[in-house]
């Protein structure tokens, strides 16, 4: 006969839920490993008291009872496996595997029997149903009635929350059957009552999940989180694992408690309790027990008086009470030397810790993945940028986890770690290619970036050409809009006495007409710089005195090199924080010394500002005088030019007739109006640096005639 029997796809009934896993029977005992949580139940062969084979909904099941009252149920066996199991129990455990069928009569009255941690409702000798008392969360009594309330099961679609038993009265004196029933239930039920004093209390600990600050009271059998809004009572039996993880900044520590079943807040379930500690926080702890009790219970793992870092004290106490090992990061080191990798999971950024037997991600949402439940991993190129990559994990249950935005410098370290742990890599055959592709990342990334720039440049050129075409079109429209004005000017000249002269010089006019639009277009283009007038606004004068530094900045400039030498390799942000701490801790006398220096600097600044303001006023007065003088000279030059144009026009048109003199006067009147309008236009154009307008050229042409 074989020394071991192994069964796959066996279901263990735990608190109303069926958890699948692997069952192994050996000479030493029975071992069941939960495939979901990885929790291992180990039953020693010497502890087994009874074995029962029965028909259940999932085929056939095995119920094992231990000598200390614990009950274990495993379902999913085939009927043909009974003989093999029966022979194994006889040979190795010296037990008869009894066959018992459940009663299916449908009666609702019978006898209640308490056996260990199990309540059995029987009709005759056959059980109808069984209730593990560890599932009971509350027990209340009424008149001839007992009500049992159960813990909610998150894994089941439908949960049984309450059962009521009617207990008929009896004639026995001094014994209340209802109270006796309730006491039997409460003695084995998982009812948490905060009775007695706590072993120790940790005040105002920062908790990331559930978020807030909580007082943690340590009781012998459970953990009590007391916050401003919510209270949680966590039995130590629900703690699966403990993790102590260093933060990437090397100044903080995560303490993670894995829970099954999770704690509840409304419809939210917290499978992990995450505490955040600063490495600088110290505490002196005194346990609320005498030294003999401490020695007897904890066997040297704890002492009555302890002191040290806060995170060390919390983890040490939890390890002793929960009796589980604390998992810490292994020998993995990332590109920056940290034991974790910065990445994003879903919508939040966090830290991924490669452990010796799995991965854990903190903190929102926390994820723990064991190596034995991983089907394969995959390294994928980042979806948004080639400067990062994605790390994908798919479990045997088909669940996929994608950790994105990992710096590509971490690829080599992570790949070597995964390869050393012999995990199945989906693209293992491309290891060299992957490294090459990531080496090509730099080249291809830069090439792609250059190509993108080239494409953008081409698009910019196209936009500029379109803009030039549209501006040319608009320029033609402005030219055409200017032409009617010019034609009006020509028509106005036809009413002058020199209309024949203007008509006879048609070629010259046509030449001038061809030149006018170009000059007009120049004037329009020259008006664009007017939009840049805000640049001429008064800005900060580089010659102005600089503002004085504060006392803290003076001290920081003097002490920066010393801080760098005391803390080699310190970053700029850490240096600022360290300087702030040193300044805060500095004595009042030393601060007064720097305050005096700052006051002296302030006086010097005020003195320099007075001198600067006097000099700037003098410069402004000189500038105004020079501007006025320049304008006066420009007006004188314009007046002389107007007089010369008038005399040349009068000499060119000589006539003795009075009517002609009247027309001559009218022409002078018209030309003076034109010259005045031309001068106003000329002044506007001179402000913008433009050429002289066409009327002046007409005057010169008439003078030459």
Q: Give the oligomer, counting copies of the same chain as homo and different chains as hetero.
A: single chain
Unreliably modeled segments: 429-453, 473-526, 531-537, 649-678, 685-705
Question: Any idea what the CATH architecture of one domain is?
Answer: Roll
Radius of gyration: 47 Å
CATH class of one domain: Mainly Beta
Strand pairing plus helix content: what structural class? Answer: alpha+beta
What would the principal axes of the Cα set say about the shape? elongated
Instruction: Enumerate how many helices there are, as a single number.
Output: 13
Main beta sheet: 8 strands, mixed
Helicity range of the residues? 40-55%
Strand order of the largest sheet: 4-3-2-1-7-6-5-8
What gap, in angstroms, lies between the N and C termini? Answer: 137 Å
CATH domain fold name of one domain: PH-domain like
Query: How much of the sequence is in beta strands?
Result: 25-35%
Q: How many strand segments? A: 31
- What would the average pLDDT be, to the nearest integer? 75
